[in-house]
Predict the 3D structure of the following.
Amino acid sequence: MKKLLLVLSFLLAITVSSSYSQISNLLVLGKTTSFSISSGDDFGWSYNVPQTGDTTLVQIWIDADQNGILNPAVDVMWTYFNQIDGDPHGQNGPPDGDMTPNSSVAFRMPIGLAPAHYILLFRNHEKYTTFTGTVNHMASPAYTISGNVNVPNGIGKKNIVVMLESQGDNGSGIFWNGLTDDNGNYTIEMNSDTTGNPWAVMVSNSFILGAGVVDPEEHELHIYPKVTTYTGNNFSFTPAGAVVNGRLLSEEGNPVIGGRINYTSSDGSFYRDAQTDTAGTFKIGLRPGELPQATVMLFAPVNDPLHFVAPYFMRADRISAGNTYTHDLIIYKTNSTISGKVLVDGKTPNYSIEVFCTNVDSVYTSSWTERDGSFSVPVTSKVFSYDIGPVNNYAQGPVYNYTPIGKVAAGASNIILNLNTTDVKERPNAPEEFSLSQNYPNPFNPVTTINYSVAKEGFVTLTVYNLIGSKVATLVSEYKPAGHYSIQFNGSNLASGIYLYKLESGNSRAYKKLVLMK
């Protein structure tokens, strides 16, 4: 479930508290009783929490027996996430729409929910509130996407959620779901808006299948106006030959719900991920043909490295068929830095270099240097010592050799990291050399950061436009050497809405969308 609700979760923020409180005044689409909509209609809710900043766990279930009563033994969970009063980002799910800590939480947007009966569960302070409703087929779908999810005997084939999600920068933000029937067959119905090309088809709630592997991870589709039917988007589920599991916890010991855990093989031949459940537990399955494994490598990425340090664990432990390997990961808050200066071949680099700080038993964090080589990497003092070095990207140069300086403690400063250039790798073509990153945070209010890279020196412009094409800001307009750059955009003088930002250098151009929510 690589991108569960990605269109709703503009970034994965980390939940560090599980203090739930009772909600009140719950409305779904403005109703106090059961809702009824069609797929693709607006969907959302609002409620109050008694304390500013409270956290609510939201679960959305398929009401399999259609009786309006949640029975986990029969009904099937589609998704789950924390929603925090005032949170503008979302915890792998929708944010608080007003982005203000005011004891009022709301969310609303068009969603292509699969036609079915649903139960929404809101949990606060171990007290549960549920809300039922029905999603109907849209009247006249413009496109259908279909296939089969093949699972072994003994595993239920019905009510597996398959998602169609935009991968393009110009997508409208909506996604479309379909449900499997008793034979594992599904059909996704979609409206006429194809601006999100390319699209990805994926199994959205694969966690209900256990610690196995879904192949392929996703199908890529280009949807064309004159082709209305897309068949054969099939998936198969392979039970795990071995399992790597554990819990993702905050430094206070609370479970992190909806966190992403990555597992990478020691030779880099494959990558797998999983999402933590409502207890913070993750399960990653390895195929029988991928065993044995000689090294365990686990990583939990965070999108807010200024405030949290990513958990990282690597150990030369053998995993064989039938094994279950358990290791917990902890997300620490940053409370210190490691700083210094990088010299390349004895000189100031005059470009940015990524510097990492890691402890292979617990954490990994990194930061980019300034052009003069100075760096400051956010870390936690709760980890005793760190190794430090440059991040070598073997797809593009330079590649560095350096002599490790030994273990470094949090708070260390004036470190000199001497690098020697050993090789320069050129990427095969310019489009891969020129990159524009998604702004962070997104949505934002009123300041966001945009990172970009230019492969060769030249005149660079970075501009922001509204949706009717009018330029609203020029962030960069100057001659720049090749390198990595970062700039902040302040939208305090603009209205809430969606904007485009464009990076240009020579014949290269890149576009992204950003969302300002006040």
In short: DSSP finds one helix and 39 strands in the chain. Residues 258 and 276 are 5 Å apart (CA to CA). The two ends are 31 Å apart (CA to CA).
